[in-house]
Amino acid sequence: MSLTAGYVQRADTKTLRAVFDKYASVEVEGRRFMTGEDFLVTFLGLLPAEGANQESMEIFLRALTTNKDGRISYGEFQKFERSLCVPDALYKTAFHLFDTKSNGVIGLEEFKAVVTKTTLYQKIPFNFDCDMVKLYFGREGKRSISYNEFCQFLHDFHDEYASVAFRARDPQGTGFVSAVAFEEILLSIKSHLVTESVGAHLRDAANAEYGDQKVSYAYFTAFLSLLSNMDLIKKIYLNATNNSKTVELTKEDFIYSAQMMSQITPLEIDVLFSLCSLIHATGKVRYDDFTEIAPEQYMKQVTQQVLSYQAVTSPDERNFGTAVLESVYRFVLGSVAGATGAAVVYPIDLVKTRMQNMRTGSYIGEIVYKSSFDCFGKVLRHEGFSGLYRGLLPQLMGVAPEKAIKLTMNDLVRDKLREASLPGSLPGDLPLWGEVLAGGAGGASQVMFTNPLEIVKIRLQVAGEVFSAGQKVSALGVVKELGLRGLYKGSQACFMRDIPFSMIYFPSYAHFKPLLADETGYNSPGSLLLAAAMAGCPAASLVTPADVIKTRLQVKARAGQTVYNGTMDAARKIYAEEGFKAFWKGSVARMCRSSPQFGVTLVTYELLQRYLYVDFGGSRPTGQSAVAEHNPDLVGGYKAARPIFTGVESKFGLLFPKFASTSSS
Q1: Strands, E, within 272-318: which ranges?
Q2: Is the pLDDT of residue 108 over 90?
Q3: What is the rounded radius of gyration, in angstroms, for the C-alpha atoms of the chain?
Q4: DSSP labels for 170-216?
Q5: What is the CATH number that goes with domain 320-616?
Q6: Alpha carbons 514 and 521: distance in angstroms, whole number
Q7: 40 secondary structure, DSSP code
Q8: What tens digit of pLDDT does each residue of 360-408 get?
Q9: CA-to-CA distance for 83 and 590, rounded, in angstroms?
């Protein structure tokens, strides 16, 4: 295994082929091809469906194909998908746009031919005869540059463009431009660095230096440098505040921290504090200011970068041994997640059990509860805080493998069903019935752990209900009393509860996640928790009758209490003695326990997979990458295609008109 940065995961060959065939509209001599419209309009949605600019389409297609007929073969489609998965996909895509001869180098004429088609060039022409361009392409412009040289040139070219624009707005060479020109340059050339808050105050910021509607070149370059280095600004702030994000920092304190860490200039700091003063007028900065001043960086729009282990270099290398290792990996993470979720909500679980065990009529010395809140209060009053955690240790010992096998089995069955290419769906897709089946398999598999765990836990939880018991109940004592067969008492009711729960829960969670994701498709921990809690409410409440029956079967009946002989016998007697409402006892406590428990469990499980990721070539939870999926068929590297093209345009100022009319772009 090798340690690598996790960027964008490739799609498997079968899935990619199915996606290509779906959008390929042309067939020539038995081979299918995509047209430019198929790829850029229908598939990526990069250009509009009506009135797309044909010159822009030709430029974008250069990143995929070298032929002149505008057709994209499956081989070219697959090759480009691979190029989108590499860490430097942004620069590679830009390079292919300019490499019109497909010979691995770029000449000045090739570069000029593309740049002159941009909307920026139409607004502010660039003098290609400048010294900076000559240093890269030679005095006569005859030299071609390689990929690595091109990357550096593109970076320098964008900065040079800003200087060229400044000089164009200062024809007399005074070293100053007007506030209006300053605003125009920023919004034309550095629009990707200008947030709405900064854009609204550009002219006010221009007045901050001299107060007479003009901006010096020094202030101009400091302003650009500040916007380009906001990540460094954040580090300087955190260093000065000992990683606190709430402290308001004075200019003096900020300068002191800056001089210790970087070469940022006092003028750049002046610009920073001027902008912050325009936004909230306190004379200090706080961490929240930086999100208003600087937009999210491009790579954060594509995907979160995390350290990961790569067990295979591509999904095609996946084998049986890799699949087994993946299941072990998921089992370990599921164990940690399950124990975390159980510990968080254990007091609610204890209240739920006490409420469900309460019979009509009371045993002498037994506490009677009016409601879940009354139960909670009486446990605290009579048994103390530790009473809320009776039976926690065996719960943690058992819940780890229980939740682990449930999560692992659900993921495993989902993966197998995806690989099976189910009728009516693309490879990699999973219909609703498949999600329900996978959830049911997960619920059934956990019962072998759940039943022994819960019967011990329940007997410990209800032990504090009788004052006169006089006998301390322990987990080991319960196990000895029950024996192996007794530990599975009530297992039929346990199946009746756990299978439907998982059949409802996992599909609901899978569908709530994308609804709560942000506009880029990324799920924050908060949205994961909310999705899990929302899925848990119907799943937990609808299976409460089975949970009540299971509880009654597993609790040891006291003298005078009804004895139940099996699931159906318990159902009949509960209905006859206590009515239909008895089947819903503790339903509120169950929802209050199950929703947050599975919320915490699944959030922990997904975050562990997100930040301790091991690539086994299989599936990965959705919502981990901040990728704008405008089309649900975008898979693998193509999930990042639109953000990468957008990044090429905004990061390097290479914005191409979308419509046939440049004015409407």
Answers
A1: 306-310
A2: yes
A3: 32
A4: -TT--SEEEHHHHHHHHHHHSGGG--HHHHTTHHHHHHHHHSSSEEE
A5: 1.50.40.10
A6: 7
A7: I
A8: 555 544 556 677 778 888 878 877 877 777 777 766 776 777 788 888 8
A9: 49
Measured at the CA of 233, the angle between CA 258 and CA 283, to 5 degrees, comes to 80
- How far is 21 from 398, CA to CA, in rounded Å? 48
Tokens 């960027």 found at: 7
Contacts of 191 (CB under 8 A, 6+ apart): 650
pLDDT at 417 over 70: yes
Range 41-47, long-range pairs (CB < 8 A, 24+ positions): 43/631, 43/633, 43/634, 43/638, 44/630, 44/631, 44/634, 44/638, 44/641, 44/642, 44/645, 45/630, 45/631, 45/642, 46/641, 46/642, 46/645, 47/658
- Print the SS3 string covering 445-493: HCHHHHHHHHHHHHHHHCHHHEHHHCCCCCHHHHHHHHHHHHCCCCHHH
Mean pLDDT of 347-351: 78
What's the pTM? 0.52
Which residue carries 């139940």 as its tokens? 564
**What does DSSP assign to residue 30?**
T
pLDDT value at residue 627: 44
Of 257, 251, 254, 258, the closest CA to residue 274 belongs to 251
Q: Note the pLDDT of residue 399.
A: 72
C-alpha 70/C-alpha 55 separation (Å) is 12
